Please model this.
Amino acid sequence: MTNIVEGPAFRPEPLHVLIGQEDIAIDSLDGAIGLIRSLRNDRLGRFAEMLLTQMESARLPQQKNDAWVAFATWTDACHLRNDAHHWSRAA
Model:
């Protein structure tokens, strides 16, 4: 029998995304999953099926962290990021 050591708890850095004119704070993996599900009928949502699968299947803290990084990367690629710490707002 193998024991899996989970490591430190997963605590994501909140992201702000801009959908239309609405600024939405995403501070959890469940929130990110909800956002992508809400976009399923949208062009962006159709491109995120594999990402959604990764996020929904994440169980261990490292898997959750990897899924969060993938979500953050996806929001960057889709030009959805709207937070003060985002690289595009750098001087």
Notes: The chain has one domain: 25-89. The mean pLDDT is 85.
